[in-house]
Amino acid sequence: MYFIYLLIIINISLPKPRKECPPCSIIINSKSDYKNKIEYKWPKIEPNSRIKINSLTKVLYSEDNDYQYWEWSNREPWWSNYRSDPWTEKANWIRNYEKPIHNFESCVNDNLRYKCGYSYVLNIPKNYEKNKKYPLVISLHGAIKNNSYTLQSRSNYGKNFFVPEDDEYIIATPIKLGIDWSPNKINDVINDISSNIKIDEKRIYLTGRSMGGRGTFIVASGLPDKFAAIMPFSPHHTPYSYKELATKVSHLPIYLHHSRNDNVSSFQLAEKTFNEIQQKNKNIIFDVRNFGHSGWPKLYNDEKIIRWMLSWKK
Length: 314
Prior knowledge:
Blueprint: H1 2-13, H2 33-36, E1 50-53, H3 67-72, E2 119-123, E3 134-140, H4 148-155, E4 170-175, H5 183-194, E5 199-209, H6 211-222, E6 229-233, H7 246-249, E7 254-259, H8 267-278, E8 284-289, H9 296-300, H10 303-310
Parallel strand pairs: 3-4, 3-5, 5-6, 6-7, 7-8
Antiparallel strand pairs: 1-2, 2-4
């Protein structure tokens, strides 16, 4: 009996395991929550500028289909590496890098940061006017992990886009922390932008390359009424096939690009997806080249391709 009492006393006296939490906690339920729940001051929006936005990093997404793949693969949190924190105030990771001061709560496990919202970079048009509505292009980068050089390159990818002076648009480049892109998180990026900048809701477009190409299918299928047109480039085929999402995006104008000599993403899967969508949708273009797993800046800088995209409205 004495031994049992001793065990009880020891159990009571031992410190309880601390419950870990991600470095975000705000739950968004409506568009008004962006203003009412998130304490974040947007930088001043100047014409022909590039600005970094971190407002959604405070938002928690407790459930997301992508989490299982991250957890199963035991991925290392690349954002803890040297000069690789994506939550910087400015989009600088090479020169003038300023490591963010987070002041996280004591329960925070920063390895869980993938459960938080995306930070993103905005490219503002050269002739931006505050009271004018602009088309919005969401650009999804590829790969799964980042470092200082890829963060710098991917956040600055908007410079590759042809922007016609007679139809300027805003480019948003989110920074992904998980494996696949999240429709819920992208939807909040769009809502966050439209809460602070005048956006033409009938002219929101989605594009991406490699993992961002498959992300284009994933996000568009999760938000089937959000986009006027989509442009998936060289979509990657893992961790699961995006072909099954074809029926959910077959109503959209689609510019699908893939190279036959791509040794990273499956050309055959892209071709099968095109053939399936084409049976229901004649507004799909399958652009086949021999760029390998690259060459996307040439496509984004092609006036004909960009004007094709911009020609569509919901």
